[in-house]
Design goal:
Elements lengths: L1 E4 L2 E7 L9 H7 L4 H21 L8 E3 L5 E3 L5 E8 L2 E8 L3 E5 L8 H8 L3 H5 L3 H22 L18 E4 L2 E5 L8 E5 L6
Antiparallel strand pairs: 1-2, 2-6, 3-4, 5-6, 7-10, 8-9, 9-10
Helix pairs in contact: 1-2
């Protein structure tokens, strides 16, 4: 478990080591999913509930329901921001008390195409494409996690055009509008970033 600052936590683990949630509402929602997706869903919820139990025990049993934009929200606790991410055997979740949060984990590809690199990196793309293929793909994955974490925190998802957010390859932190993002390079070999807003009032 990673404490980012007061009231902001991230947890990342290999999915295989995360027990599936047995919470009644999680099981009800998983029942409508294909088997492979239900397993991933329940492990993601399981990791989130472990994080809640460790940091905010009174929230552990809350239902996790999508809001009107499809973002997860703790029923009855709209001020608590939560986020979950899955990528090829890795799970990440995040909690922010009294503020919005987004987390993203991304297993890098073996290589990255020039088109994708230019779309995500724009002016930074030539320098990254000059790297060996594996290093270039890793750099792009780190950028993408920061971009995706920002739009998750904003609640806009892909509609927020994450590829338009300027993230310099190799950067460890930055800002996008009202959101601060951090790439957690010292905690994870797999690209992992979170983004969070200012504390909500009330």
């Amino acid at each position: 478990m990673i404490r980012i600052e007061d009231g902001v936590w991230v947890w990342v683990q290999p999915a295989a080591g995360v027990p599936a949630s047995t919470h009644r509402d999680d099981l009800r929602r998983a029942a409508a999913l294909p088997h492979w997706r239900a397993d991933r869903f329940l492990r993601g919820r399981g990791l989130l509930r472990q994080l809640l139990h460790a940091t905010a025990p009174h929230l552990t049993d809350a239902d996790v329901a999508p809001d009107q934009r499809g973002q997860p929200q703790l029923a009855g606790y709209p001020q608590a921001g939560v986020s979950i991410s899955h990528s090829e055997g890795h799970l990440a979740c995040a909690l922010a008390v009294g503020r919005p949060i987004g987390v993203d984990v991304q297993h890098p590809a073996r290589s990255v195409g020039a088109g994708l690199a230019h779309r995500l990196l724009r002016a930074h793309a030539p320098g990254v494409l000059a790297l060996p293929p594996g290093e270039a793909a890793d750099a792009v994955a780190w950028v993408w996690t920061a971009q995706e974490a920002c739009v998750k925190a904003a609640g806009s998802g892909l509609a927020g055009r994450p590829w338009s957010i300027d993230v310099k390859p190799g950067a460890r932190c930055g800002r996008w509008g009202a959101y601060r993002w951090i790439s957690l390079r010292e905690y994870s070999d797999t690209p992992l970033s979170c983004a969070f807003g200012t504390p909500r009032e009330g």
